[in-house]
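Hello again,

I reread your note about wanting to compare the complex against the isolated chains. To keep things tidy I'm splitting this into two emails, and this first one only covers the full assembly. Below are the input lines as submitted, including protein chains and any nucleic acid or small-molecule components. They are followed by the predicted structure of everything together. The single-chain runs will come separately.
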Amino acid sequence: MGLHTGQLDAVPPKFEEPAISQPSTSPGRDAIIRLRKNPVAMICLIYILSLILIAIFAPLLTHYDYDYQDSSRYASLPAPPDHFHRLGTDNLGQDVLSRLIYGARVSLGVSVVVVIIEVFIGVTLGLIAGFRSGMTDLVLMRVTDVMFAFPDLLLAILLAAVIRSGSQALPPVTSILTLFVALGIVGWPGMTRLVRGQALALREKEYIEAARATGVREKNILFRHLLPNLLSPIIVQVTQDLAGYILAESTLSFLGLGVQPPFPSWGQMISNALEYKDSQPQLIFFPSLLLALTVMAFNFFGDALRDALDPRMRK
Amino acid sequence: MAQTQPLLDVKGLVKHFKVTRRDGLRSIRETVHAVDGVDILVNQGETVGLVGESGCGKSTAGRAILRLLEPTSGTIELEGTDVMKLSGESLRTIRKKMTIVFQDPFAALDPRMMIGDIVAEPLMAHSICRTRSEGIDRARELLKIVGLRPEFVSRYPHEFSGGQRQRVGIARAIATDPKLLILDEPISALDISIRAQILNLLEDLQSSHGLSYLFIAHDLSVVRHICDRVAVMYMGVIVEEGPSTQLFSSPKHPYTQALLASVPIADPSKRRERVPLEGDVPSPVSIPSGCRFRARCPIAQDLCAQQIPLLRDLGNGQFAACHYAVSN
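Full-complex prediction:
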């Protein structure tokens, strides 16, 4: 009575026409296409990729080792740029350009390792908390809250100071490991919260329920539905956290708690250059510029990624 | 009705939700009686309608039968198997035999999966297809069955309209060749023009695949079109039940009468006698004494506040839970 099915039956379309006839694209490809249309994102991406290449091929691009002290020069005062050293030398007669390039290795290396630690801990705990809920969730999230309550950098400084507080000086390589531990411990709660929140929201989605209703194993629901849908917020978070860790590493090194000489680090170079800020300002300028550009590039790229991956942007 | 073994036999299904309400600093624990003792019987090849206003617990009942929500109590038997006793792997395998089509086709498909993978997923989960390519091949056939092009397997959900997505949802639901489909308002989110197509598809599938349906809906006209028997739900209980023709021609419960009177007629010259329904559905937290419908019932008496009316046999297979329902 209410539905006039008879009339509609008269013209049954064999197939409903597809809404669009363009070649099919996955949500991921869509995001990449949108990202490529964003000039700021592409500039940032080019900058980041060149920085990564420079860091990887540092030995091929530099004329001097990062710890080579040019004995032909006066080695207790920095020198301005000249024919041999394009950006000058520091107070130990070390080539500034080489140290900047090797410094990129340290900055990127440390932040990438820390992000891997963060993703590993954060995603695991976040998924457990979000998917299990109940007591497990409660305990995990309270621990996370406690960790979250500490001021990040202060805690990292404290941890770095505690780890290196032995009576003997630590070998320089250990100083980098110290950074991994200190920043890794500080970093995971943010990721855990993000993943847990997203997992909680996704768990209520009908397609998860549909998968369960058709008898899909929990393990497959986790890996085939939950994780792929979590991927975009995680990627965005990782990009922006990379910037944060580059900054944190520089801060710790600036304070003398991070990378130890002879290994170079932008923060440490800035710190050393402070003493000569009046006579040789370029010593501060170049590492600061590089640091600022890098952090900005990661942040802008993260923002662009967020926009590109946001399903609401889809036409 | 020739009674052999019923396909689905649900008895005394109860689903309560515990909620905590905040009143200032105190937190008050309450129980929402979403489903409060429901019996549903679906025979082989039959379509049973479960209707009621939104919030009456019909969708909750559907999900509880599948144990997507854990029932508080009750028994659920599918072909003699006690579904309530199953757990883990055996619960997973029973879902090969009964599954669900959701209301919102936009939410029910994973946006990151291709249509082929979505349809093939149950096949892989129950090891009906061993490899992905085998699953995709089967998905092509299933898409053809539901009236979509086989080449849609490599497309993504966002490229389709609501009606097309619902067809995909149906293809996924019938992939494992189930006995019973729970249709949770499968057409109410669709355009009017698409609804009839989906209903026809469901009817075709029923005859070609020997399916039985538990059709959850709030729209009586739809239910009348497709269902053999209909159960009317109000606040978590069934107030009237009977063969579709019987229930629509002579509704016994005042609530059913009111629901029927509210169905619009597509002819402005015809006027129907309106049974006014006043007030809102009472809160499912504090269930009124006696008859749950009495606050809104036009014929309520003192007795209705004292005694809970049970489903009474009124002849011709019709049952109603009303003290004043007249027998056939």
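For quick reference: Chain A has one domain: 36-57+92-310.

B.
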